[in-house]
Amino acid sequence: MDEHSVDRPSTDGQGTDGQGTDGPGADGQRAGGQRRIRVAVVFGGRSSEHAISCASAAHVLPALDPARYDVVPIGIARDGRWLQVSGDPERLAIGASGELPSVDAIATPGAEIAARPGSGPGSLTVLSPGDVPRDLGTVDVVLPLLHGAYGEDGTIQGLLEMTGARYCGAGVFASAAGMDKEYMKLIFAAHSLPIGPYVVVRDRDWAAGGQAGPVAATADLERKRVLDDISELGWPVFVKPARGGSSVGTSKAHDAAELEQAIEAAREHDRKVLVEAAIDGLEIECAVLEGTGGGPPEASLPGQVMVGGGADFYDFEAKYLVGETHMIVPAPIPEPAIAEIRRLAALAFDAISTEGLARVDFFYTPDGRVLVNEINTMPGMTPASGFPKMWAATGLPLPQLMDRIIETALHKRPGLR
């Protein structure tokens, strides 16, 4: 590996308090009497990416060394309930015929989980109707494998900080900025990162269009202005929810008629919509980890996404349900372009103050330009996902990758970051 590669994480099990194997939450012992690190793996969630979060957990859970970790699987149902669930990877994975998993299908009946404020950092209780609340103990660190709203947007990060729990991944601000593509791009532009042209369609610009009265007439004018701005991007354009992921609600519009349909489809997931100019170029991804010992972020070898199944673009089905879609690592582009992508990935990571991990997506154009598309602060961890594939190709297979992510979180202070 070169200067961007990572060292194998240490295995001394020490957190920030230096207590090592005698730290908080002493549940479970390693051979020789050493305490295992107690990790709450949280997945599912209320967003449209619920199934992908479950699939991420299915891939990650078997990679957590049982000799080192005492794992507590926690599922969040689509209605927001926190449930005690099975950690069986087979029940969490996407089915061979494309069946999507869910938390409700694997939950322990009637067993809800609640944090216990004032009972110490990471304290959890199981609440079952008609039963005395049962202590689940404390956890050393939370791994929130949640994608999309109510998980990757700063909401659960704020909750975990209020309870004093250490957690993996980005903090409140970086999670929120990374989820909202409008503000992500504004921050990238402020840091002089190269991005493509786009237009934001807000609820007030769109919802009142076509109604009667003077207020609606003003709204119609605003809607026309937005449509004019979009037409200047050229055709086709990509239309997506401003705060979404996994290409859910994303579509490609080739003309004005398709544009209106695409905006309405995106608005089913988010009242704010982003319309982006189509970039003629290869889709390249790069994985990033927070540096060790206060060092700079470290970028993986980048990979090129090869969309299969005849898909017009990298949509949800092409990402997760089409077997022909794959990734080439390293991307088959010139070495200077690879170096530039890794450099920009680290800059994007720092631009929004990301911590822990992220995946940065790029376009590499025929004339050799590199454009930053977006950053994902909790990237997919499924077998089809680029993040674990790129780190494996860089020399860090999934078990050691998860060690690194968890150990980074254990070195954070509890509470407000």
What keywords describe this structure?
417 residues, alpha+beta, 7-stranded mixed sheet, 6-stranded antiparallel sheet, 12 helices, disordered N terminus
Describe the structure.
The N terminus is likely disordered. Helix content is 29%, strand content 22%. β4 and β5 form a beta hairpin. The relative contact order is 0.14. By secondary structure, it is of the alpha+beta class. The strands form 3 sheets. It has a 7-stranded mixed β-sheet with strand order 6-5-4-3-2-1-7, with helices on one face. It starts with 36 loop residues before the first strand and ends in a 7-residue tail after the last helix.
Over all CA atoms, what is the radius of gyration? 22 Å
| Number of continuous helical runs | 12
Form type: globular
Strand order of the largest sheet: 6-5-4-3-2-1-7
Uncertain regions: pLDDT < 50 for 5+ in a row? 1-27
If you average the pLDDT, what whole number results?
85
Short characterization:
With 417 residues, the protein is an alpha+beta fold. It has helices spanning 50-60, 89-92, 155-162, 172-179, 181-190, 203-206, 214-231, 256-267, 316-320, 335-351, 386-394, 398-410, and strands at 37-44, 69-76, 82-85, 107-115, 123-127, 134-138, 141-144, 198-201, 237-241, 251-253, 273-277, 282-289, 298-299, 303-306, 326-328, 357-364, 370-376.
